Amino acid sequence: MTETPWSSFSIGTSVLGRSIEAHRIGSRSAGDQLLLFGAIHGDEPESAILCQRLLGEKVTCQTVVIPILNPDGLTAKTKDNARGVDLNRNFSARSWKAEHPPGYFPGTAPLSEPEAAALAHLIRDTNPKVLIAVHQPFRCVNWDGPAEKLAAEMAAIIDYPSVASVGYPTPGSFGACYGVDGGIPVITLELPRSPVEDDFVRCVAALRHAANYVTL
Ligand SMILES: [Zn+2]
């Protein structure tokens, strides 16, 4: 039997006015236990596809899924949002700074962008226990905050490496804000550049494991 979300809603709108859609799946509880999002970078379309595939799965905890955090970027096939901001540098982490390498404009201030602000407000209001961001193309499971064990377990299911760092600084990133500063387990699941069916199957299994992990 295919599961379907029991609740769908908009968490806000993008710079160009597109709705950012969220869906709740899994056992209903007092609140969201797990939060998962994809396509914060618009040039990582398979991250959205993985999130959408999880919507049809039975999961054990109340899970909120946002397949497309950056709908303008996904439509335009650009990493950044419509104002040229890398949304994964726009969170209110202590490490946020205005100076940046070319291609990583962090915005004029933390949460200056409506897409990052919508996600931050949802997390503030619902306090999920575990946060998962889906990206491409590094083919690994990266973690921030107290998530090393969960990252290792997910990596074993997917057969990707589990890594403490993606190899370069990420000031103002989602993981820096919620994992490093906030002390919440944050997983960054990096699909390969061109994932095949086996990647999706294994990653869905790992995401279901994360839901179980939160439930335990
Ligand atoms: Zn990315």
Write up this protein.
- With 216 residues, this protein is of the alpha/beta class.
- It has one domain (7-215): Aminopeptidase (3-Layer(aba) Sandwich), CATH 3.40.630.10.
- It has 6 helices and 8 strands; from the N terminus they run βββαβααββαβαβα.
- The chain has helices at residues 45-54, 71-76, 114-126, 148-158, 174-181, 197-215; strands at residues 7-13, 19-25, 34-37, 63-66, 130-135, 138-144, 162-163, 186-192.
- Strands 1-2-4-3-5-8-6-7 form an 8-stranded mixed beta sheet, with helices on both faces.
- β1 and β2 form a beta hairpin.
- α1 crosses α6 and α4 (148-158) packs antiparallel against α6.
- The longest helix has 19 residues, at 197-215.
- It is globular, with a radius of gyration of 16 Å.
- The two termini are 24 Å apart.
- The mean pLDDT is 96.
- Bound molecules: zinc ion.
- Zinc ion binds at residues 41, 44, 135.
CATH top level assignment? Alpha Beta
Question: How many distinct domains?
Answer: 1
Question: What is the assigned CATH homologous superfamily?
Answer: Zn peptidases
Write the CATH architecture name: 3-Layer(aba) Sandwich
Our Rg estimate from Cα atoms comes to 16 Å
Q: Total helix count?
A: 6
Low-confidence stretches: none
Q: What proportion of the residues is helical, as a percent range?
A: 25-40%
What structural class do helix, strand and pairing data support? alpha/beta
What characteristic shape results from the CA principal axes?
globular
Query: How far apart are the termini?
Result: 24 Å
CATH T-level fold name:
Aminopeptidase
* Chemical compounds bound to the protein: zinc ion
Major sheet, described briefly? 8 strands, mixed
- Enumerate the strands of the largest sheet in spatial order, edge to edge or round the barrel: 1-2-4-3-5-8-6-7
Integer average pLDDT: 96
What is the chain-wise order of helices and strands? Answer: EEEHEHHEEHEHEH
Number of beta-strand segments: 8
What share of residues are in beta strands? Answer: 15-25%
